[in-house]
TrEMBL record:
Enzyme class: isomerase
Record's keyword terms, sorted: FAD, Flavoprotein, Isomerase
SUPFAM superfamilies linked: FAD-linked reductases, C-terminal domain, Nucleotide-binding domain
Family: Belongs to the UDP-galactopyranose/dTDP-fucopyranose mutase family.
GO molecular function terms listed in the Swiss-Prot or TrEMBL record: UDP-galactopyranose mutase activity
E.C. designation(s): 5.4.99.9
Stored Pfam families: GLF, NAD_binding_8
Organism whose genome encodes this protein: Paracraurococcus lichenis
Keyword Transport: no
Protein name per the record: UDP-galactopyranose mutase
Gene3D superfamilies linked to this entry: NAD(P)-binding Rossmann-like Domain (3.40.50.720)
Length: 383
């Protein structure tokens, strides 16, 4: 059969590869002139540094099958994400760990003592946190919340922390050890040649045709089915309104030598307009020493408008209501399946994106074997 996959990021590439391996022809299109979506990486012509053009992406997973899959197409080099944060004119480690606690409070506590200390700081009267702020106060108390979470969250989301769901903070660990690894997954790394090279290898298979700089709306292809990884609301020409996203603006910094000594530095104080600075040669520590110059990007977050790159789905009450209407509309549409971060309007890490694309391919082949069409959604966007 002949299929169309819209989007040459991880979702589209992994799905297309599996369908092609099963003997189908797959046309993959992307309106950008590069593969890998927001994970796109490229060598900077002036410095030679491998840049993450849409912000840093660190691969981490507990899914061994997904880890083996990416290693099939690119060598994953060891990389541990160690985030630093500036608060009140001092530098700390994130996530909040024993070093952060001792440094912030000027103490030398051990794990048990620090655990009891933070329990005393935390708001014990909040037993069922209803929002981000209540979740933070119930975890770490007022002082740490205001130092590391409140200002950064207001800058990142443009909203009061009381308006955000508690689940956002539940993803961040609180450690009573000196472990400063931002992630706890057993498999972590960076592709040696970058994400774009990795995705290019996934798409390099008999039965796959790739067209870059090609808008789905401009196509008139005769295909059996469309797999769409673009924005769900865009597919329907925004007829029910625009789903809300946060976008990022990047301010480039070029300098000699080393600018900040680490890959990511968060800025927690609300008075500082940017959320973080990323120094990209530190995302490839195996080659960083050979670069005489450095390239960094300051990030600022704002509400996405028409024409902006969508990064983070907002998914508050109004958006969830609109999403429900779009999902109902999609379920009445024939010949189309939606998947991926934009197609399901969900925040997805790269490993989850790959896992869902692998599962979508398996479900598609099973449905085809039964003589039926692929499902409209492989994962419920409202679930």
């Amino acid at each position: 059969m002949r299929f169309l996959v819209v989007g040459a990021g991880f979702s589209g590439a992994v799905l297309a590869r599996r369908l092609a391996e099963a003997g189908h022809f797959v046309l993959v299109v992307d309106e950008r002139r590069h593969m890998a979506g927001n994970c796109h990486t490229e060598r900077d012509a002036e410095s030679g540094i491998l840049l993450h053009r849409y912000g840093p992406h660190i691969f981490h997973t507990a899914d061994r099958e997904v880890w083996d899959y990416v290693n099939r197409f690119g060598r994953m080099m060891p990389y541990v994400n160690r985030v630093k944060a500036v608060s009140g004119g001092r530098v700390y480690s994130l996530p909040v760990n024993l070093h952060t606690i001792n440094q912030f409070f000027g103490t030398t506590m051990g794990p048990a003592e620090a655990r009891a200390f933070i329990a005393a700081q935390a708001r014990g009267d909040i037993t069922a946190p209803a929002n981000f702020e209540e979740q933070a106060l119930s975890m770490v108390g007022e002082a740490l919340y205001r130092a590391f979470f409140r200002g950064y969250t207001r800058k990142q989301w443009g909203l009061e922390p009381t308006a955000l769901p508690a689940a956002i903070l539940k993803r961040l660990p609180l450690r009573f050890s000196y472990d400063d690894n931002y992630f706890s997954h057993p498999h972590q790394g960076m592709p040696e040649e970058g994400y774009t090279a990795l995705v290019a290898r996934i798409l390099d298979a008999p039965g796959i045709a790739l067209r870059l700089g090609c808008r789905f709306e401009d196509l008139a292809e005769d295909v059996a089915h469309v797999f769409y990884t673009g924005p769900l609301d865009r597919f329907f020409d925004y007829r029910l309104g625009r789903l809300g996203y946060r976008t990022l603006d990047f301010e480039e910094i070029r300098a000699e030598g080393d600018f900040q000594g680490t890959a990511v530095m968060n800025y927690c104080d609300e008075a500082v307009p940017w959320t973080r600075i990323s120094e990209h040669k530190h995302f490839a520590p195996w080659e960083a020493a050979r670069f005489a110059r450095t390239v960094c990007f300051r990030e600022r977050s704002r509400l996405a408008g028409p024409g902006d790159t969508p990064y983070y789905p907002i998914r508050l009450v109004a958006e969830t209501r609109m999403l429900s209407d779009y999902v109902a509309l999609a379920r009445r549409t024939r010949g189309i399946s939606f998947l991926g971060r934009l197609g399901t309007y969900r925040y997805l890490d790269m490993d989850v994106t790959i896992r869902e694309a692998m599962d979508a391919a398996a479900a598609t082949l099973e449905r085809l074997g039964e003589g039926g069409p692929p499902p409209v959604f492989f994962t419920d966007p409202l679930g």
